[in-house]
Structure formats: structure tokens, C-alpha cells
Design goal:
The structure is a single chain. The chain is of the alpha/beta class. The chain is 39% helix and 18% strand. A hairpin with a 3-residue loop joins strand 10 and strand 11. Helix 2 runs parallel beside helix 3 and helix 3 (138-148) runs antiparallel to helix 4 (155-168). The structure holds manganese (II) ion. Manganese (II) ion binds next to loops.
Length: 334
């Protein structure tokens, strides 16, 4: 076994040691949770219960509706007051503790914190830190953790892990779609996950309101740098017109970057009542949008990153488009 294999064996053992110490476990992920966060946390929750351990899921509301088909998610807690008095906290897919959301401060009953993540910017805030930037998703890491703990891959867990990996790889369109990511997906399918059903549920079932919002957002599409950079915006007014919130815009960020000739894109969302713009960056090829996100205090991965910028929508659009073009120049220079 190689060195990193040994290290992960040790960290898996340490994590299971904490999880089996007699306290209930609370698994959580980041605010406006995505497929990787919710799929990974829910898979671990199922796994802990399979082993006869008391476990709870906690997510900061509002929750996106697109994952509600996943079995067991209806049992998630959304108010810190519902949590047990003392518990071990497992934080998944969060680069820093504050990413959990506003409720992070209210998680006062946590005894030990286990931090499981694949962002290389991870702040190692846990008592145990299991950080693997080489993993496509936390779903991959949870698969290994469950296997190390002797948890059989049930249909429910397989659905969750497939969801985590297929969403975080951008439906297998990002460069981190490794043989390992696909091998784990294959194991999930063998265990009963149905890719055709999951992909349809996740990516091909927008509500009429979501289609209307997408139509409105497409009206703001703008090209920069001879069509190599594209930006798109969602305004407060569009949320009002369609009746859906920022949390139900999963997949919108992929629209502009999928256009022929576009190498990098930004989706800008006006966030209700806080005066800042949430920016989701995407890229094709080797352009590193995480570096652009970091300019504005954000983070993420090479092909998918994000940040929050205070300011008026059009000012933010210009700043972000400029930075993407700068990064494009820096990347294409020999
Ligand atoms: Mn992730």
C-alpha cells in the first residue's frame, strides 16, 4: 500500500473511533447545500444507522427542492434547537467552519468535530481533518469511509453517493472525473442506483417556474473577450416574478459555460436582502476559476468556484468579467 493509502487508513480508523464513542453523531454540510454536500452527509447518516449508531442530519434552511427524492432526507433537522445536548459533529464539503451557515454559531453541543472535505483551501478546523483535494467529490471519500467501517453499500447509500459524484463532477464534465470516481459510480449502480433515473431527477426535471427563471436569466447573457467569457445574471425582480429563490437555481451556472467558444463563465445572483452578489464561476479546459474566486475572497475548485461580492450587479459583472479575462490571458501565455 502506498503512503497516502496508509494515511487514509489511519484517518478512517480515527474517524470511526470518534463516531463509535457513544455520543450521537450530527452530520452536516454547507449553506445552500449542493448534491455533494447533501448526498455525502445523507450517505454517512444511513451508514451510521446501519451500524446501529444514533445519527442526525442537520442542514441550514432553505434547502434546495431537487434532492427531496433522496430517501431519508425528509428526516433532516433544520433548527439547531432540535439537536441533542451533546454530539460529535461531522462537517462535510466545507472549506471552513463558517460555511455551514448562520447556524454554525449555534452548534454549541458539539464535542468533537470531524472535518471531511476535498477543497485544497480547507482550513483544517476539525479535531480530525480528512482533506483530500485529489477526490472529485466528498462522495468518493464517504464511499471509502463507509467501506472502511464495514458498512454494506445499500441502494439508499448508492443513490446518495452517485448523486454526490455526478453533481460535483458537473455530470462527468469536469477534469476530476477520474477512473476512481467512475469506479465508485459503477459500484453504486451495481448496488442498485439507477443512473438514468437519478440523472433525470437531478438534471432533467425543472419545474415550470425554474424554466421561466432560466428564460429570464438568459435574457441577461453577455459575451466578453470575443465570446470566450460569458456572464449571466439573476435579479431580485426575477425571483419575485417566478416565485423561486436562489437555492433552487442549481445547474444555472453550467448554462453559459456550455456555449460553444466559451471558456469561462460567471453566474451572478442578487441575494435577497443582504446587498451582495453571489458569483458562481465555471470553466472549460485548464482555466483555473478558483484563482479568480480567491481574488474576491472566495474559493472552490479549478473548474467550479464561487465568491460573494458586495456591490451593484453591473459593477460586479464588470469586475468579474475583467478578472476572468486576465486569468484567461495568464493561462494562454506560454
Ligand atoms: Mn464538493
Amino acid at each position: 500500500m502506498n503512503e497516502s493509502g496508509q494515511r487514509s487508513e489511519e484517518v478512517h480508523r480515527a474517524i470511526w473511533h470518534v463516531l463509535a464513542d457513544g455520543l450521537p453523531a450530527v452530520v452536516t454540510s454547507h449553506v445552500r447545500v449542493d448534491g455533494d454536500g447533501v448526498g455525502s452527509a445523507l450517505a454517512l447518516w444511513h451508514g451510521l444507522r446501519t451500524r446501529g449508531l444514533e445519527a442526525h442530519q442537520f442542514f441550514e434552511p432553505p434547502m434546495p427542492s431537487m434532492f427531496s427524492f433522496l430517501k431519508g432526507l425528509d428526516q433532516c433537522l433544520t433548527d439547531p434547537a432540535q439537536l441533542p445536548k451533546a454530539y460529535n459533529l461531522v462537517v462535510i464539503d466545507c472549506g471552513c467552519f463558517e460555511r455551514i451557515g448562520e447556524s454554525a454559531r449555534q452548534l454549541t453541543g458539539r464535542m468533537r468535530t470531524v472535518n471531511i472535505d476535498h477543497h485544497d483551501s480547507n482550513a483544517c478546523f476539525g479535531d480530525i481533518n480528512h482533506v483530500d483535494p485529489g477526490a472529485s467529490s466528498c462522495g468518493e471519500m464517504i464511499y471509502d469511509l463507509l467501506a472502511a467501517g464495514g458498512v454494506p453499500l445499500s441502494r439508499e447509500i448508492a443513490d446518495c453517493l452517485f448523486t454526490a459524484i455526478v453533481t460535483d463532477t458537473g455530470q462527468f464534465s469536469h477534469q476530476d472525473t477520474t477512473p476512481e470516481a467512475l469506479r465508485i459510480c459503477a459500484e453504486c449502480v451495481r448496488a442498485g442506483a439507477r443512473p438514468h433515473e437519478l440523472v433525470r431527477q437531478l438534471f432533467m426535471s425543472p419545474s415550470p417556474a425554474q424554466v421561466k427563471l432560466r428564460h429570464l436569466a438568459l435574457g441577461t447573457l453577455r459575451f466578453h473577450d470575443e465570446g470566450r467569457v460569458a456572464t449571466m445574471a439573476i435579479t431580485q425582480e426575477m425571483y419575485r416574478q417566478t416565485g423561486i429563490g436562489p437555492v433552487d437555481t442549481e445547474g444555472f451556472a453550467e448554462v453559459a459555460v456550455s456555449i460553444q467558444g466559451v471558456v469561462a463563465s460567471a453566474l451572478l445572483k442578487e441575494m435577497p436582502g443582504c446587498g451582495y452578489i453571489k458569483v458562481s464561476l465555471r470553466s472549460r479546459e485548464s482555466l483555473d476559476v478558483c484563482r479568480v474566486a480567491k481574488v474576491f475572497g472566495g474559493g472552490g475548485h479549478v473548474q467550479a468556484a464561487g465568491c460573494e461580492i458586495r456591490g451593484a450587479l453591473e459593477d460586479v459583472r464588470e469586475m468579474v468579467a475583467d478578472q476572468l479575462q486576465l486569468q484567461l490571458r495568464a493561462t494562454s501565455e506560454p
